[in-house]
Structures are given as C-alpha cells and as structure tokens.
Design brief:
The chain has a five-stranded parallel β-sheet, with helices on both faces. The protein folds into two domains: 24-218, Glucose-6-phosphate isomerase like protein, domain 1 (Rossmann fold, 3-Layer(aba) Sandwich), CATH 3.40.50; 223-281, Helicase, Ruva Protein, domain 3, CATH 1.10.8. The chain is α/β, with parallel strands linked by helices. It is built from eleven helices and five strands, in the order αααβαβαβαβαβαααα. The chain has helices at 26-37, 40-45, 48-63, 74-91, 120-129, 148-159, 174-178, 199-218, 235-249, 253-262, 267-273, and strands spanning 68-72, 98-102, 137-141, 163-167, 181-183. The chain starts with 25 loop residues before the first helix and ends in an 8-residue tail after the last helix. Strand 3 (137-141), helix 6 (148-159) and strand 4 (163-167) form a beta-alpha-beta unit.
C-alpha cells in the first residue's frame, strides 16, 4: 500500500494561533480554545445540505427494515457508539436499529487502540459479524477521512449495494471519495496540532445529533417537539412524560402520571386514551 501523505491533511496542520499556547496564562488558553470552538458551528452550517440529504436517504432504508450502522475509529468511533446508545431511551427504538462499531471493539471505547484504525480487514469482519446487508446504511466517521478501518467498511458496504455515508473534516478524503454521500465540515487545524477530539470531534457530534434526531423525526418518533416514544425508566423521565401529556391535553400532571402508569409507560397510548391523536394531519 502506498504511504499516505498525512502531513497534507487539514486535521494534521499546525495552528499558528496556538503556537505559543504552552506559554500562555490559563485564562488565555481557555479563551483561545473557546474562540476556536466558535468556528465549528460555521463549518457545520456549510454542509447542512449534505446532512439533510443523508437524513432523507437514511430514514426510508430504516422504514424498509434496514439499520443505520456507524463505523469509526478512536474519538470518531466513540462518538458513533454514543449517538447510537442514546437512541433507544430517547426514541423508544430497538438497540439494533442504530448501532455503533468502533475499531478495536468494546475495549477501545475505554482504552485507546489507535493501531486498530489501520486494519481494513477488521472492518469487513465486524460488519459481517452483525450480518450487514444491502438494506442497511454504513455511516463511516473519521476526522481525517483516512482511517483504513472506516474506508474499508464503506467500500465493503458499497460492494453489497448498501447506502454509504462518510463524515470527515478534511476535503477530498479517501472516505468521502468512497461514499455515496460525503459530509465534510472542514474545521481546520486544531489548537493542539492533530488532536481531532477537539474541533473535529465537536463538529462530528453536532452532525450526528442532526442525523439521528432528523431520522427519528422522519420516522414519527417525535410529536411536535416532544419525545413521545421515550421510555420513562426513572423518576425524572416519568415526570417528563407526565408533563408532556399534561401540556398536550391540559389534564393535571398527577392525572397524566396515573394514566401513563395505566398504559405501561406508553406516552402515545396515554395520549390516545385521553382522546389526543399523535398522528400527523
């Protein structure tokens, strides 16, 4: 395999503004980091069209029985796993619907396994292990867009005829070139050169928030702006669910809570019993 020119990647470039960060007073360090972070939302705003396109391609696949599979390495992989893990309690979907796969496996969530990102064959094996098929969606996440694990996953998924999406922070990356849809918020050099858990990681989290939220809205898991499909599995969530019912129907919170308990925690069913439909007009 030809040696990559990693030094040419935007995410590896040196940031001239932070060159003397090791000599700055603490308040200047955090002020500089904050100023750099302010640029991230702008980078994401420039790729909203690609994000919307991805959402509009993903949710029909899920309606047909497919799954959304995030694939990443290092910080990018952890962000994918995090986003996937939040969907069942927030939207009441099966943990199988949206999954996160990280290079190096479960242990890599808690301990760095940086060498795992170079293993393209492992990505193929990991996708095969979950029975990845043409009906699923492979969503590769790599700040540099160069992780072999991610590129390998995208290419394998595409060979099966599956929809492939790449989220990276470097223009013209290998992952972007391999995917059907490229989402590329270019966040520029990091405050600490190459530390893509910073601006690039923040941009990736913002994009993933939009992806999963947008898909869940399209799948009817949200009514107005309420989480009507969430699982009220603790006291805070039970209280939130009762407040949702109360706000939508006008019944008292205690009455809403009793109705909710009678319905086994099913917010939509409680709303129906009170005579309030959550179906779209």
């Amino acid at each position: 395999m030809r040696q990559k020119d990693y030094g040419s990647l935007t995410t590896e470039a040196a940031n001239s503004r932070s060159y003397n960060i090791d000599r700055m007073p603490t308040i200047e360090i955090v002020r500089l980091i904050n100023e750099e972070d302010k640029t991230v939302a702008g980078a994401v705003s420039r790729v909203l069209g690609s994000i919307a396109l991805a959402i509009d391609r993903i949710y029909p696949s899920l309606e047909r029985g497919g799954r959304l599979i995030y694939v990443g390495a290092g910080t990018s992989g952890r962000l994918g796993v995090l986003d996937a893990a939040e969907c069942p309690p927030t939207y009441g979907v099966s943990p199988k619907l949206i999954q996160g796969i990280i290079a190096g496996g479960h242990k890599a969530m808690f301990y760095a396994a940086e060498g795992a990102e170079d293993d393209r064959e492992a990505a193929v094996s990991d996708l095969k292990n979950i029975g990845f098929s043409a009906g699923d969606v492979c969503f590769g996440i790599s700040a540099s867009g160069s992780a072999e694990y991610v590129v390998g996953a995208i290419k394998y998924a595409k060979s099966l005829g599956a929809l492939t999406i790449a989220l990276s922070c470097t223009e013209g990356s290998a992952a972007a070139a391999a995917a059907d849809i490229a989402i590329t918020p270019v966040t520029g050099p990091e405050v600490i050169s190459g530390s893509t858990r910073m601006k690039a990681g923040t941009a990736q989290k913002m994009v993933l928030n939009m992806i999963s939220t947008g898909v869940m809205i399209k799948l009817g898991r949200v009514y107005h702006n309420m989480m009507v499909c969430m699982k009220p599995s603790n006291r805070k969530l039970l209280d939130r669910a009762a407040r949702i019912i109360s706000a939508e129907t006008g019944v008292l919170p205690e009455e809403a809570k009793e109705m909710l308990l009678d319905c086994g925690g099913d917010i939509k069913e409680a709303l129906r019993r009170i005579g309030h439909s959550t179906d779209k007009p």
